[in-house]
Amino acid sequence: MNEPFVIKVTEEFSGIRIDKFISDNLEDLTRSYVQRLMYEGNITVNSDGVKSNYKVRNGDVITVIVPEIKEPDILPENIPLDIVYEDSDMLVVNKPQGMVVHPAVGNYTGTLVNALMYHCGDSLSGINGEKRPGILHRIDKDTSGLLMVAKSDRAHLGLAEQIKEHSLTRAYKALVHGGFTEDKGMYADPIGRHPIDRKKMAVSYKNSREAVTHYNVLERFGKYTYVECILETGRTHQIRVHMSHHGHPVVGDKTYGVRKEEFKLDGQLLHAYKIGFVHPVSGEYMEFEAEIPDYYKNVLYILRNK
């Protein structure tokens, strides 16, 4: 049995339906799957079972048990991919917002891995096992942008070493809340698991790892700022956690952001627009860029024309 997730409800979330609250806080669980877990008795509030229409209250302690599920075979799916670069050893893909990278509970189809299985066939590297063939680093479901994928084991090993050495160029563009007094800066707060919500990360000085994010202000829009974020390390949710911790949550971020947003968005305005690396076989330095998506451009257009 997997270790249960324990979530304590705070005042700002009081009154939200429990199925929505849990799916918002545990990003790998869909609302329908949460309802199924409740029906099967795997979710309790203050040690008691509840129905899916229960509205959470300040101070509620929610326990979620996700049973271990035998992983099904990952099936190739003919899903269109925006491939920026490809050769016999690797490729760079521009992932859209809303696409899950790795199959997980509630998301065994429609993922980037399913699409890559179809596109690459048997040529994908298998060092990470069948669940994550060729995938070297993550981009969150609701973040868009560039990802490296290894097609050969030699490419996988070479690129993984660059990730370990922090020698990659990885830059994002983010629209965040609030203004900055400086045009550039750095956040070096360590990041670890959130002490209560185990699906969330947090700035922590206990059981944490070094995390460094450099930022440059690109444009100022009063209560919003458009920034470039350059990763020195690559911790889970790093940019989102650092920005939120310093009072600049990413616009549209449902996990670390503000509760009410001005814009109707399906996810955060965070885009991995640049990636650079030394090709693991040829030894040539390569760098690629991808434009921000149209929905992101539309928000900037509104702000520029206010």
What features would you describe in this structure?
With 306 residues, this protein is of the alpha+beta class. The chain has three domains: 5-64, Structural Genomics Hypothetical 15.5 Kd Protein In mrcA-pckA Intergenic Region, Chain A, CATH 3.10.290; 70-165, Pseudouridine synthase, CATH 3.30.2350; 166-306, Pseudouridine synthase (2-Layer Sandwich). The protein has helices at residues 18-25, 31-39, 112-120, 153-164, 238-245, 294-304, and strands at residues 5-8, 43-45, 48-49, 61-64, 83-86, 90-95, 144-150, 169-177, 184-187, 191-193, 201-203, 208-209, 213-221, 224-231, 270-278, 285-289. Strands 5, 6, 7, 8, 9, 13, 14, 15 and 16 form a nine-stranded mixed sheet that branches. Helix 1 (18-25) packs across helix 2.
Name of the CATH first level of the largest domain: Alpha Beta
Shape: globular
The counted number of beta strands is 16
The percent range for strand residues is 25-35%
CATH architecture of the largest domain: 2-Layer Sandwich
Poorly predicted regions are none
* Assembly form of the protein: single chain
The number of domains? 3
Overall pLDDT, averaged?
Answer: 90
By DSSP (H or I, 4+ residues per run), the number of helices equals 6
